[in-house]
Design brief:
The chain is of the alpha+beta class. It contains 2 helices and 8 strands.
Length: 183
């Protein structure tokens, strides 16, 4: 038998190339399965249910609505005293979600000028405000530097905040209505 070293090298090269080709085909098949067939299977499997999609859209829309009612700007305020509404009076409000959902602002009514500090919640759509009247402004008979606490909640139908106010110099607050509307 003729034992030529170059013949062995040729046979080894053919066997090595065959094994390499088989491994290449297997790897391509595995990659196709991973990147093409499995994702298309899951896409068909997870076709969204229109009812569920609708609920997600409503929830997302409601969250956007909650955020969009707290827009910095000028607002008109009204309050009741002795059974009659007074206003509109104007206040400027700024909403700061990065500062713990704080509200800052200023305003003026028939009593005096005041500074505003408080909190708001886009989840409950409520605000709790403290109106600190500035001594030396407005009506000196009514303004003694008192603080008014305002608690309001968003009324979706009327598109305004509604609630009550409580004075640091009065004991009642049950029938003291307070309304805040976008101007």
């Amino acid at each position: 038998t003729n034992s030529n070293p170059s013949t062995g090298a040729i046979v080894a090269a053919i066997i090595g190339a065959s094994i390499g080709f088989v491994l290449l085909v297997c790897c391509c098949g595995i990659l196709c399965t991973i990147f093409i067939l499995i994702p298309s299977f899951y896409t068909r499997l997870k076709t969204p249910n229109p009812t569920v999609t609708g609920i997600h859209n409503v929830v997302a829309s409601a969250y956007r609505t909650r955020e969009s009612i707290f827009v910095p700007g000028t607002y008109a305020s009204y309050y009741s005293k002795n059974g009659s509404y007074r206003g509109p009076f104007y206040m400027t409000l700024g909403f700061y979600n990065t500062a713990g959902y704080m509200v800052y602002g200023k305003g003026k009514d028939d009593v005096a000028s005041y500074a505003i500090k408080g909190f708001y919640s886009p989840i409950t759509r409520r605000m709790g405000l403290q109106l600190h009247y500035q001594i030396g402004t407005g009506d000196p008979d009514q303004n003694i530097g008192q603080t008014i606490s305002v608690h309001v909640q968003w009324n979706e139908y009327k598109q305004q905040f509604e609630g009550n106010y409580y004075s640091s110099i009065e004991s009642t607050g049950k029938n003291n209505h307070f309304t805040i509307k976008r101007h």
